[in-house]
Automatic annotation (TrEMBL):
SMART domains hit by this protein: HTH_LACI
InterPro entries to which the protein is assigned, alphabetical: HTH_LacI, LacI/GalR-like_sensor, Lambda_DNA-bd_dom_sf, Peripla_BP_I
Residue stretches making up the HTH lacI-type domain: 6-60
Record keywords: DNA-binding, Repressor, Transcription, Transcription regulation
Organism placement in taxonomy: Bacteria, Pseudomonadati, Pseudomonadota, Alphaproteobacteria, Rhodobacterales
PROSITE patterns referenced in this protein's UniProt entry, alphabetically: HTH_LACI_1 (PS00356), HTH_LACI_2 (PS50932)
Record-linked Gene3D superfamilies: 3.40.50.2300, lambda repressor-like DNA-binding domains
Name recorded for this polypeptide: LacI family transcriptional regulator
GO MF: DNA-binding transcription factor activity; transcription cis-regulatory region binding
Length: 338
């Protein structure tokens, strides 16, 4: 029995199609009939054939790999955006490399070596900052698009959700339920997405005529622990809102856990909203009212924009903000009568 790796010819023979059709099914699947794609995919599974993206890059004299740099691949938002990125890249003959910085700014510099060695053509940034030391690593920054978090220090094209609109939808729901003393949890000047959500919250409060004395703002870094800490600090101050508008779902989960630990009921005693609609949001008790990001579409649009940059096409937009959806569940109700 031969131990040699499967070839594209093996796939074509089993699928009973031409080699050109196999190539199109792999690199341009939208141009191949679904029944043909199914036969090719089954043949690939049988043979164990793996398209050699690096070899193809050498033949073409350029890389067809996209570097995706993320601070935390465990973030619930990452995988859904990655699916949109990868599907769009694959449809145009590109592959994806993942660089995990583990929230270490200097690790990003290591991944820039992919560009100096011509192993990657462009970059998708989840980090919100340019890789540390990029000026010394490359003559110029490769084509780059930011997603999920606007890039703080670089005028980089960005694709994400409309944070202002999403936050305003959340605070308008709380106001409609009768809340007038609302705490925003997650003030963070180093995160542009969080800053935009704060602005959206303020815009909603302004429109409703909520006075400044009824507004509470607490710092946070988007973690569950920061939500717990905000609850503890508010009880120590004895300055309590009737509703918590949280900068993301992780913060909201922390707030709910902190309130529950003190014996309070959500939403009977306090209402809580989040932002993102991560999978855990629907499984909380009570389930979390939140703002849903269209994560798959964010990935698709970001990769489309990056491919335009790679083809030297002038993009029609340098910031694409997709509309968020308000997802009403069970964590919001009217304020209690105290």
């Amino acid at each position: 029995m031969s131990n040699s790796p499967a070839t594209i010819e093996d796939v074509a023979r089993i699928a009973e199609v031409s080699i050109a059709t196999v190539s199109r099914a792999i690199h341009l699947p939208e141009k191949v009939a679904q029944s043909t794609r199914l036969k090719v995919n089954q043949a690939i599974a049988i043979t164990g054939y793996t398209p050699n993206a690096m070899a193809r890059s050498l033949r073409l004299g350029k890389s067809n790999m996209i570097l995706v740099v993320a601070p935390d691949i465990g973030d619930p938002n990452f995988s859904s955006i990655l699916v949109g990125l990868e599907n769009e890249a694959r449809a145009h003959g590109y592959g994806v490399l993942i660089g995990h910085t583990q929230n270490d700014a200097q690790r990003g510099m290591e991944y820039l070596k992919f560009f100096s060695s011509n192993q990657a053509a462009g970059m998708i940034l989840f980090t919100g900052i340019l890789p540390f030391g990029h000026q010394s690593m490359t003559a110029r920054l490769p084509p780059t698009v930011g997603v999920f978090e606007p890039v703080f220090n670089g005028g980089i094209p960005y694709v994400g959700v409309d944070d202002l609109e999403g936050a305003r939808k959340a605070v308008e729901l709380l106001i409609a339920e009768g809340h007038r003393k609302i705490a925003f949890i997650g003030e963070n000047r180093s995160r542009l997405a969080y800053a935009r959500r704060r602005l959206g919250c303020e815009a909603g409060l302004d429109a409703a005529g909520i006075p400044a004395a009824s507004r509470i703002v607490m710092d946070g870094d988007g973690t569950i622990e920061s939500g717990r800490l905000a609850v503890d600090q508010l009880f120590l101050r004895d300055t309590l809102p009737t509703a918590f508008m949280c900068v993301n779902d992780q913060t909201a989960i922390g707030v709910m856990l902190g309130l529950t630990a003190r014996g309070y009921d959500v939403p009977r005693d306090f209402s809580v909203t989040g932002f993102d609609d991560v999978p855990q949001a629907s499984f909380m008790q009570p389930s979390l009212t939140t703002i849903r990001q269209p994560r798959g579409l964010i990935g698709k649009h970001a990769m489309t924009l990056l491919l335009q940059l790679l083809s030297d096409t002038e993009p029609t937009e340098t910031e694409i903000l997709l509309r968020p959806d308000l997802v009403v569940r069970n964590s919001v109700g009217p304020p209690p009568r105290r």
